[in-house]
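I would like you to help me understand the sequence and structure tokens below and explain how sequence relates to structure.
___
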Amino acid sequence: MSASRPRKAVALLAGLMVLVGASAIASLQSPQVAQWLFPPEPPPPMETGDRLPTEPQEVLLEAASEPTEVPEGWPNLFGPRKDCTSPETDVVMSWDEEGPPELWRMDVGIGYSSPVAADGRVLLFHRVEDEEILACLNAESGEMIWEHRYPCFYKCKYEHSSGPYSTPIIHEGSVFIQGAEGFLKRLSFETGEVIWERNLSTDYAVPENYYAVGHTPLLEGDRLIINVGGTVDESGIVAIATGTGETIWTATTQGASYSTPQAATIHDQRYVFVMTAAGLVALDPEDGTVFFERAWRARHREAVTATSPLIYGDLVVVSVYQKGTLCIRVLPDRTFEEVWMARREFVSQFNPMTCVDGYVYGWNNLDKSFRCFDITSCEVQWKWWAPIGRGTHVLVGDQFIVFGESGQLAVVDANPQELIHTSLTKANVPLEREAFSAPALADGLLLLRNEKQLVCLDLRP
């Protein structure tokens, strides 16, 4: 036997091992194999008095009590009701692969902030080089009415936008914005003049997060509720007076997330539900009294919480990337019980959820499908593996306008019994990917953006 044969045999064996190793690595990249090899961590121990029922509990399947007056237009993130639903009825909900008629289009800077609109004006918060810009535009033409600029030097350490992430709020002649470095400002909606401003990152010694300051404040009466994540005077959550910019109260020591708080009246008590970096906090918006907390966060700190709580009746649903989805029931004594947990049926990373007649519609992170599930059990009714990736949506009547991260549009019926989707646009219509910002719908005009362009589509008959 020649000396070269052992060397050839060794080389052959080494090559075989490389092939097997490559195959194994490829298999590990499969979500199904990864879930089998690395199952989700077991749920944390229940707190005293809490329980996880084996069957869905009787729930109050009615929308939570809200003020009857709905603001006009699309004045804040997720619309006038803050739940991705539109009160408009006279809207065209079908189009061909070219999409709805385009009214105007303009180049814009970076950021994930969503457009808002009211009184014939559109506001866009974006960044060009080292300036953050709040632009006020004519809704019919896209022409500039005014703009407010100021320096911003934040740079994201990861492959994500350097902001701004937070969406403006239009309220009673004022506009409120929060920039990537934590500047909170109130401006005149008419002229863009600054009325007051604060640097919350400085005021509350906020440690730098993994990405830009990104949570959109909640407007609740005469105050803004903000998950600042400060380290001074229990300033995890703060209430800021809209009139003066002064602090009304502070609460908790929990860090900041990228989720927008939500408010509702349940059992005759007004609540604000905040998903912080640590989990869910339910508190009184009047004085910041904490009613209860429930830890619910991702295993890895850099996997930030970005999905806003969903409130329906006395149920609150929260979803966290890597962790799963949790449904709790708020009890009359201002405590809670847990209804269900889910880790495979539905998990949202940053996409909103909307509940219609007891069924939740939203985007599952793992397979990027648009899903419908029963809010009382998380039983999935159907899945749409949409070619548009994950996305956001607006409910108009009994249909969703869905806007994917691919920049494409489609229409999906809010029907738990059957998946019906239509009006899918072709690739790069109306925008190129990646498109992560939520849409706005005001006076029949649909506003969409990515980090290159803002487009206005005409859905009027």
Observations:
- The chain has three helices and 33 strands.
- The two ends are 86 Å apart (CA to CA).
